[in-house]
């Protein structure tokens, strides 16, 4: 590429360049397999490196290198300072190079045990995977793990790069035996397209041209294969899918729907159906900065106008009228967990799917996959780097396609509601039938009728605080006072819940979430029955209190923070629980080895160091009067 | 209609990113530095929102030391795109007269650019800022996300980046926090030039070779762009046929001798180039992790 005068006609060269396609691939292997060396070499051989970068590499090789006097190509790729010192790559990096035939984007991800999330991330945008194997070691557990992960995200083309062949005397036998083993394994994953190449990345054999040291190998070099492999998968062959990202309204006369086509193609005059509303219309124009188009296809970013003035907003999906996407709010999904805090069934999360972000929760995993053995195991939660299958429930119906038929219409990310971190990623398999069949039974005696008869409004008084903070004491006094005022009440506390409704649950984070969910549901029914429900549970997590709040109508949930410092409750320790927890005899004890998340904005904040339980109870009753829930004259 | 070419795919992806970012933010802004990458980014923005104008202002964090030709193009492009142009000059730097000659490049860059940028973002309450950085520019950039989260103090934590999968970008943040978005993440220098040619995008003429007054300092050719340039004893600006591969503050930007005075000629020269474009920038030549350190502090 760098030969002077090779491109005499630059214009012609530019035209040729513009007609090039793109291959995105991911490389998988461990630090020891020579993966970084392989990529470094590819960049070097395709002349993607400049002299100053090479000079810097020479300096780095002397300083940090592991290859003696040789260039250590691995150093080229380790971008972040701290990683360099540890000698490992710990995130996803993207590299670019170009040859005469193609442009390439390489996702470089580590092969370390704990970094499943990085590999899934890198693979999610790749068309092909290069799996590295050390010829001396053959297939390892991690080879199987990497192959499973890339097959999970739908990559169907694999290059098996059998590296370090120089260290086994260029043995054909070794190479063929590894290839045979791998094909047998790949077939189990449904991967049929495997090309095995014998390599020495360090010495450059079979990298860009066939090596004389492997005369028995007749196939292409790695680069030759990457340049010519058919990435196929013409995603324009499916039905039209266009999630609306942005409604384009420069003035009152123009109303366009901007988005990227994620499947199929579109022409003016095509009939379309918009989900979730189900309304139909016809495409009027395909508007772009460069003029209207006669046709647009999958992958293009366009703006459509329709012949009818129908209500469409961000997140809606414009589909082929004759073959629209599915519409559902409950799914079976594969979920990959990417956060330190485990996935908790029932906890409210956010899910982003296409251009829509919705409230979501997951059921208990049906199973988790041991990525080393591919065995299905039972589990109550999903830990960091865990992969499992679970039901997903959204707070409203969305348009989707199964991941297997459209990657972009069937993939989602999971976002934590408080930290806003991306904590997981998932693949939709199918809609659960039950999501379409449950309808509420209309009743004639309704909540309003019960409120009229009771003479007061219902609500939930949700007391939260550390064990021993005085919740139950205060709750009892409140109930007595309300009863005296003629209100219909019910007190839910540990005694009447833990021994019955939740007796199957323990005190792990997952069980705590489920316990609070059940209490929330019971409280919701009681509110519907017109009662003032008082709950007295530690309820340590913000997310679950939020969940319980969301189960009743606005204004019906009154969060009361019973605030007693840890040092004080630990000293009181009426049941001796803190002492046990400190001795390690009680696991997952809130305040000791399990966190208590202080309410950010409770309706009432009771500081028990400053007032008696009676005063606290009166403050609650006063609040109910001020809010118009009850009247004193009762 | 056949499969999309490489440039078409890049363009569609960038437009997708621009639209998504605007839809998910309350007060977006585009960092406009007048260089070739900024020019491409602005062009893509005009495409993304057409027939609407791009629904955000342009922000130029000025140092008062840019090439005169850059200021000219800046004002022209803002007029053409119809967007509001906000020029921010750090008042503290202005008061102290910070300049690269007396204060050195590191201090100059930190006070005018890094601190100036933070000031401007805070002052206008922008919660999302587009930048023209590319992953192929530099090692620490290769691991940067397209949507890059910044704390309320504008800090970047490379150990705590959000994983980015498929085409799904997480732009959620709390009040005071912000997101930097890089629509050109997957473009290379060559892609940028090919696109400029194909789309006839206006660029600062300094990228093309011409006779310009320069002096040679420490092996680097520096252009004497105005009368503020303090000539050392014995130094006389000489006319040399030069051009620039990147543009920044003129005293900190090295010129290369070249006859490439057309875009195809530039591309030809780049194809045979043996040094990367960042070499002309003095900021990158410190310790290996210099860029990462600067970014953690809030540099774009």
Automatic annotation (TrEMBL), chain A:
Domain Tr-type G: 20-240
Oligomer status and interactors: Heterodimer composed of CysD, the smaller subunit, and CysN.
Pfam families reported for this sequence: APS_kinase (PF01583), GTP-eEF1A_C (PF22594), GTP_EFTU (PF00009), GTP_EFTU_D2 (PF03144)
PROSITE patterns from the UniProt entry: G_TR_1 (PS00301), G_TR_2 (PS51722)
Protein's name in the database: Multifunctional fusion protein
Job description of the protein: Catalyzes the synthesis of activated sulfate.
Active site positions, chain numbering: 539 (phosphoserine intermediate)
UniProt keyword list: ATP-binding, GTP-binding, Kinase, Multifunctional enzyme, Nodulation, Nucleotide-binding, Nucleotidyltransferase, Phosphoprotein, Transferase
Gene: cysC
Family, per entry: Belongs to the APS kinase family.
InterPro entries to which the protein is assigned, alphabetical: APS, APS_kinase_dom, CysN_GTP-bd, CysN_II, CysN_NoDQ_III, EFTu-like_2, G_TR_CS, GTP-eEF1A_C
Pathway: Sulfur metabolism; hydrogen sulfide biosynthesis; sulfite from sulfate: step 2/3; Sulfur metabolism; hydrogen sulfide biosynthesis; sulfite from sulfate: step 1/3
Residues the entry annotates as binding ATP: 465-472
Catalytic activity, reaction form: sulfate + ATP + H(+) = adenosine 5'-phosphosulfate + diphosphate; adenosine 5'-phosphosulfate + ATP = 3'-phosphoadenylyl sulfate + ADP + H(+)
GO biological process: hydrogen sulfide biosynthetic process; sulfate assimilation
Residues bound to GTP: 29-36, 108-112
Automatic annotation (TrEMBL), chain B:
An example molecular function term from Gene Ontology annotations: ATP binding
Keywords carried by this UniProt record: ATP-binding, Nucleotide-binding, Nucleotidyltransferase, Transferase
Class of this enzyme: transferase
Any GO BP annotation: sulfate assimilation
Pathway in which this enzyme or protein is active: Sulfur metabolism; hydrogen sulfide biosynthesis; sulfite from sulfate: step 1/3
Protein's UniProt keywords contain ATP-binding: yes
The protein's Enzyme Commission number: 2.7.7.4
Cross-referenced InterPro entries: PAPS_reduct_dom, Rossmann-like_a/b/a_fold, SO4_adenylTrfase_ssu, Sulfate_adenylyltrnsfr_sub2
The organism's place on the tree of life at top rank: Bacteria
Catalytic activity: sulfate + ATP + H(+) = adenosine 5'-phosphosulfate + diphosphate
Domain Phosphoadenosine phosphosulphate reductase: 28-254
Known function: With CysN forms the ATP sulfurylase (ATPS) that catalyzes the adenylation of sulfate producing adenosine 5'-phosphosulfate (APS) and diphosphate, the first enzymatic step in sulfur assimilation pathway. APS synthesis involves the formation of a high-energy phosphoric-sulfuric acid anhydride bond driven by GTP hydrolysis by CysN coupled to ATP hydrolysis by CysD.
HAMAP family (alphabetical): Sulf_adenylyltr_sub2 (MF_00064)
Subunit and partners: Heterodimer composed of CysD, the smaller subunit, and CysN.
UniProt similarity note: Belongs to the PAPS reductase family. CysD subfamily.
Listed name of the protein: Sulfate adenylyltransferase subunit 2
Organism lineage string: Bacteria, Pseudomonadati, Pseudomonadota, Gammaproteobacteria, Lysobacterales
Protein's gene: cysD
């Amino acid at each position: 590429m760098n030969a002077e005068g090779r491109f005499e006609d630059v214009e012609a060269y530019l035209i040729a360049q513009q007609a090039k396609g793109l291959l995105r691939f991911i490389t998988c292997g461990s630090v020891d397999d020579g993966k970084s060396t392989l990529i470094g070499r590819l960049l070097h051989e395709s002349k993607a490196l400049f002299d100053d970068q090479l000079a810097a590499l020479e300096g780095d090789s002397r300083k940090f290198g592991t290859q003696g006097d040789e260039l250590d190509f691995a150093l080229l790729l380790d971008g972040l300072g701290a990683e360099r010192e540890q000698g490992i790559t710990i995130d996803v990096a993207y590299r670019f190079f170009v040859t005469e035939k193609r442009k390439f984007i390489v996702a470089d991800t580590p092969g370390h045990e704990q970094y499943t999330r990085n590999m899934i991330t890198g693979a999610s945008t790749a068309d092909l995977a290069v799996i590295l194997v050390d010829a001396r070691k053959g297939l390892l557990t991690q080879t199987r793990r990497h192959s499973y992960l890339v097959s999970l995200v739908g990559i169907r083309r694999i290059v098996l790069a059998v590296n370090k062949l120089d260290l086994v005397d260029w043995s054909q036998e070794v190479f063929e035996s590894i290839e045979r083993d791998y094909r047998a394994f790949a077939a189990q994953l449904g991967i049929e397209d495997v090309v095995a190449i014998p390599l020495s990345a360090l010495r450059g054999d079979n990298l860009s041209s066939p090596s004389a040291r492997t005369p028995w190998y007749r196939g292409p070099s790695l680069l030759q294969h990457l340049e010519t492999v058919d990435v196929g998968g013409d995603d324009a062959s499916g039905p039209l899918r266009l999630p609306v990202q942005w409604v384009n309204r420069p003035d009152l006369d123009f109303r366009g729907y901007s988005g990227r086509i994620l499947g199929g193609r579109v022409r003016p005059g095509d009939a379309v159906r918009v989900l979730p509303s189900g309304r139909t219309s016809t495409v009027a124009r395909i508007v772009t900065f460069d003029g209207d188009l006669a046709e647009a296809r999958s992958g293009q970013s366009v703006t459509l106008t329709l012949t009818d003035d129908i209500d469409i907003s961000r997140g809606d999906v414009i589909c082929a009228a004759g073959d629209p996407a599915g519409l559902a709010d409950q799914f079976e999904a594969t979920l990959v967990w990417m956060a330190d805090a485990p996935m908790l069934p029932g906890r409210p999360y956010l899910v982003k799917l296409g251009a829509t972000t919705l409230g979501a929760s997951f059921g208990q995993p049906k199973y988790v996959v041991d990525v080393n053995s591919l065995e299905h195991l039972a589990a109550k939660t999903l830990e960091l780097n865990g992969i499992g299958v679970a039901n997903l429930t959204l707070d409203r119906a969305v348009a989707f396609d199964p991941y297997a038929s459209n990657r972009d219409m069937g993939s989602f990310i999971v976002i934590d509601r408080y930290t806003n971190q991306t904590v997981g990623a998932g693949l939709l398999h199918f809609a659960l039938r039950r999501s379409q069949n449950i309808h509420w039974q209309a009743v004639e005696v309704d909540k309003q009728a019960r409120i009229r008869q009771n003479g007061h409004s219902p609500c939930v008084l949700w007391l939260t605080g550390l064990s021993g903070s005085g919740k139950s004491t205060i709750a009892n006094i409140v109930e007595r006072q309300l009863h005296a005022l003629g209100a219909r009440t019910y007190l839910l506390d540990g005694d009447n819940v833990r021994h019955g409704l939740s007796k199957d649950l323990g005190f792990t984070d997952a069980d705590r979430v489920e316990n609070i969910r059940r209490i929330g549901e019971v409280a919701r029914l009681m509110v519907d029955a017109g009662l003032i429900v008082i709950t007295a549970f530690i309820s340590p997590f913000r997310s679950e209190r939020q969940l319980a709040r969301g189960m009743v109508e606005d204004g019906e949930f009154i969060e009361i923070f019973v605030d007693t410092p840890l040092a004080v409750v630990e000293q009181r320790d009426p049941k001796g629980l803190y002492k046990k927890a400190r001795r390690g005899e009680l696991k997952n004890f809130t305040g000791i080895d399990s966190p208590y998340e202080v309410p950010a904005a409770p309706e009432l904040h009771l500081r028990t160091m400053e007032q008696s339980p009676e005063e606290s109870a009166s403050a609650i009753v006063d609040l109910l009067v001020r809010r118009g829930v009850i009247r004193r004259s009762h | 209609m056949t499969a999309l070419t490489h440039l078409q795919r890049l363009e569609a992806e960038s437009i997708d990113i621009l639209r998504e970012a605007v839809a998910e933010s309350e007060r977006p802004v585009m960092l406009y530095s007048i260089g070739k990458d900024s020019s491409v980014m602005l062009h893509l923005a005009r495409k993304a929102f057409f027939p609407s104008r791009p629904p955000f202002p342009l922000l130029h964090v000025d140092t008062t030391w840019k090439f005169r030709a850059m200021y000219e193009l800046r004002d022209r492009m803002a007029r053409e795109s119809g967007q509001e142009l906000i020029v921010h000059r750090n008042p503290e730097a202005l008061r102290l007269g910070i300049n690269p000659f007396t204060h050195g490049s590191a201090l100059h860059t930190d006070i005018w650019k890094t601190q100036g940028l933070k000031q401007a973002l805070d002052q206008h309450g922008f919660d999302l800022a587009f930048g023209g950085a590319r992953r192929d520019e530099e090692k620490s950039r290769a691991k940067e996300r397209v949507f890059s989260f910044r704390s309320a103090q504008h800090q970047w934590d490379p150990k705590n980046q959000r994983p980015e999968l498929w085409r799904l970008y997480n732009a959620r943040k709390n009040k005071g926090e912000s997101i930097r978005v890089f629509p050109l993440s997957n473009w290379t220098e060559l892609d940028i030039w090919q696109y400029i040619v194909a789309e006839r995008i206006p660029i600062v003429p300094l990228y093309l070779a011409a006779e310009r007054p320069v002096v040679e300092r420490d092996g680097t050719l520096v252009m004497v762009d105005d009368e503020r340039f303090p000539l050392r004893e014995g130094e006389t600006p000489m006319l040399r046929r030069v051009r620039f591969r990147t543009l920044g503050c003129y005293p900190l930007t090295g010129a290369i001798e070249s006859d490439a005075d057309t875009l195809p000629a530039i591309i030809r020269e780049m194809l045979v180039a043996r040094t990367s474009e960042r070499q002309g920038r003095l900021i990158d030549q410190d310790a290996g992790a210099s860029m990462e350190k600067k970014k953690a502090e809030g540099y774009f």
